[in-house]
Design a protein that fits this description.
CATH superfamily of the largest domain: NADH-ubiquinone oxidoreductase 51kDa subunit
CATH class of the largest domain: Alpha Beta
Shape: globular
Structural class: alpha/beta
CATH topology of the largest domain: Rossmann fold
CATH architecture of the largest domain: 3-Layer(aba) Sandwich
Radius of gyration: 24 Å
Largest sheet: 5 strands, mixed
Strand content: 5-15%
Distance between the termini: 78 Å
Mean pLDDT: 94
Oligomer: single chain
Order of helices and strands: HHHHEHHEHEHEHHEEEHEEHEHEHHHHH
Strand order of the largest sheet: 6-5-11-8-9
Low-confidence stretches: none
Length: 438
């Protein structure tokens, strides 16, 4: 495989790419003009043929998701963009919103034409103040030029776009929790079924819900054709993927790689290798909730859905967290479990109670108060959380806990043994003090 193909980041360094004029000067809005002249079903078929899979984490076929929307529904059809990028270690959507917002808007417009929607919304996390400002300006400019609103591009088709700011809840990144929040309710996930967004989404109406990167990929596909996109990547993982890289590398940042790109080569060449020349210890491949990979597992790994699944983890949101040999895994996992326990919406008992229970155990362990049987207790708690909650947040606690404590078990056992040894020494000291006083 040669140098990385640039689709989403091709013009990202151009200082005017965020403006309507700059975006159009490089072929922007040509794809939506092409889509207007196409049959809506033909647009969906092109998307299915491209092989684009949702870039928010689940990796489900975007075109297939669009095809689930009922035709000629007596209810309005909505387009919702998930810009609530809250997975720790993930910041690639932020870059698109800041530097290339019109690509996201155009992708949403094409989706709207495909399912005959006339109302769209971007749900953006409240902390994203600058991305919100950039996106809002882009929306205003699109309205001013007649690309949004009544009779877009001089046609009889009308299309509205609203930008809605969330209030900073991790759970609103889950699609049904996002819809609940958008409707003005608590951001708590819905039961699926019956609430599958394509048929029963926003206001119980058919809804296409994709994330920022997914929508931003759509214009290139429609403009260049599904065959051109599907020619990039692997047999089952098509196209390119944005990767947010943080941690102990020389060049952290957002990168675009072709699916199937060697993971080790990516870290060494694109990311500049390990910081301070230290050894690689572990990598989180797709956001902090994904099972961790050891340095040995990265050796022959490739960046695609199938390889990650084969290794027992997921490509997820593409949030790569690189850890060197100095990282204390007990401390790292303690930090993660605190986050997920705190972000539980509280709706499901296993997640609400289990998350804080797990956090307390790691706090004890970190403070030198670990007990024999703690690892077995954690395993028992995790088995009662996983698969027993409405959404995946419970599993987001379990997956790191089980992978860290399995792959780096010696570190956790050592911490417990040190605690026991410390208590033994303390007891001996107390006994000696008692005997001397008598």
């Amino acid at each position: 495989m040669g140098q990385n193909r640039q689709i989403l980041l091709e013009h990202i360094r151009q200082p005017d790419q965020h403006t309507l004029a700059g975006y159009e000067s490089r072929g922007g809005y040509e794809a939506v003009k092409k889509a207007i002249a196409m049959d809506p079903l033909a647009v969906i078929e092109e998307m299915k043929k491209s092989g684009l899979r949702g870039r928010g984490g689940a990796g489900f076929s975007a075109g297939m998701k669009w095809s689930f929307v009922p035709r000629n529904s007596n209810k309005p059809v909505y387009i919702v963009c998930n810009a609530d990028e809250s997975e720790p270690g993930t910041f690639k959507d932020r870059l698109l919103l800041e530097k290339n917002p019109h690509a996201v808007i155009e992708g949403m417009m094409i989706a709207a034409l495909a399912v005959q929607s006339h109302w769209m919304c971007v749900y953006i996390r409240g902390e994203y103040a600058y991305p919100y400002a950039q996106l809002k300006q882009a929306v205003n400019d699109a309205y001013a030029k007649g690309y949004l609103g009544k009779n877009i591009f001089g046609t009889e088709y009308s299309l509205e776009l609203v930008v809605h700011r969330g209030a900073g809840a991790y759970i609103c990144g889950e699609e049904t929790g996002l819809l609940e929040s958008l409707e003005g309710k608590k951001g708590q996930p819905r039961l699926k079924p019956p609430f599958f967004p394509a048929t029963m989404g926003l206001y119980h109406s058919p809804t296409v819900l994709n994330n920022v990167e997914t929508f931003a990929s759509v214009p290139w596909i429609i403009k260049n054709g599904a065959d051109a996109y599907s020619a990039i990547g692997t047999e089952k993982s098509k196209g390119t993927k944005l990767m947010s890289v943080s941690g102990h590398v020389n060049k952290p940042g957002v990168y675009e790689v072709e699916m199937g790109y060697p993971f080790k080569r990516f870290l060494e060449e694109e990311c500049g290798g390990m910081l301070n020349g230290r050894k690689l210890k572990a990598v989180v491949p797709g956001g902090s909730s994904m099972p961790i990979l050891t340095a040995e597992e990265i050796e022959d790994a490739t960046i695609d859905y199938e390889c990650m699944n084969k290794l027992g983890t997921y490509l997820g949101s593409g949030g790569v967290i690189v850890m060197d040999e100095t990282v204390d895994m007990v401390d790292a996992l303690r930090n993660l479990t605190h986050f997920y326990a705190h972000e539980s919406c509280g709706q499901c008992t296993p997640c609400r109670e289990g998350g804080h229970w797990v956090e307390k155990i790691f706090n004890r362990m970190y403070d030198g108060e670990g007990l024999p049987g703690d690892l077995e207790l954690l395993d028992s708690i995790c088995s009662q959380i996983a698969g027993h909650t409405i959404c995946m947040l419970g599993d987001s606690i379990v997956m790191p806990v089980k992978s860290y404590t399995t792959k780096f078990k010696d570190e956790f056992r050592q911490r417990i043994e040190e605690a026991l040894e410390g208590k033994k020494v303390e007891r001996q000291g107390l006994n000696a003090k008692f005997e001397s006083s008598h």
